[in-house]
Amino acid sequence: MGGFPGQGAGVPGVFAQRGTPGEEERGRMKCPFPENPVIRSLLCTLALALPMAAQAPAAKPATVPVTASASTPAPAAKPRVQLLTSYGPIVVELEPQLAPKTVANFLQYVKDGFYKGTIFHRVIDGFMVQGGGMLETLEEKPTRGPIFNEVGQTFKAGLKNSRGTIAMARTMDPHSAQAQFYLNVVDNPSLDPRGFSEEGFGYCAFGRVVSGLEVMDKISKVRTEWRRGMGDIPQFPVFIKDAVLLPVQ
């Protein structure tokens, strides 16, 4: 096995030690100054002092203080929305980096006051609770147009239909989500993408509950009935009294 470069060749800059100088060399090393002992002594001392001075270590250059560079800015805080329900508050934290169009769409409905007075109109224990689009009369509120389904990028980033996540409800058309959303009461991998067909495209999660999971669980336990051609409707309305964008913390 080869060694490091230069190994076994001696350390650069260190030379082999010479033997004791002979008489001829000692003669050449005598002080080459006048015979006057006083002058010769002074000049020899000075000559010896000059090489010593030359060997003195050079003064270290002044250290220039390095100005600390500006610190990397902290990542922007994720928006949080409080859903004020008739069973208590639920706070969801959104992921605009993973689902920018979905989050922007949801926040616009929040800022417009769209969710105020809507209900959780579809509740299935052990599955999910859905709301944000119907009134107590089960009339559907008019919405803006549908949005692009960003489930491909959110799922790849690890944001799935797991317990406590918020996701967009839609029809069989993968890109038909508008205002309605649901909260996953349990892990629902069947709602994650399984391909590019309509059945397997998946539902886009875009945030998670950070406060109020117990409220979500209470809502999931309410009694439901069949009404106006729809099932899983709570017997007594579960209201979304308001949805409020919380101040950045």
Percentage of residues assigned to helices: 10-25%
Following the backbone from N to C, one meets helices and strands in this order, namely HHEEHEEHEEEHEEE
**Mind telling me the CATH superfamily name of the domain at 80-245?**
Cyclophilin-like
- Which regions are unreliable across 5 or more consecutive residues at pLDDT < 50? 1-33, 42-57
3D shape:
globular
Question: What percent strand?
Answer: 15-25%
The end-to-end distance, rounded to whole angstroms, is 60 Å
Strand count, sense and barrel status of the largest sheet are: 8 strands, antiparallel, barrel
Number of strands: 10
Q: Briefly note the CATH topology name of the domain at 80-245.
A: Cyclophilin
> What is the SS-derived class?
alpha+beta
Strand order of the largest sheet: 1-2-7-5-6-4-3-10
Report on this model:
By secondary structure, the protein is of the alpha+beta class. It has a domain at 80-245: Cyclophilin-like (Cyclophilin, Beta Barrel). It has five helices and ten strands. The strands form two sheets. The chain has an eight-stranded antiparallel barrel. The protein has a two-stranded antiparallel sheet with strand order 8-9.
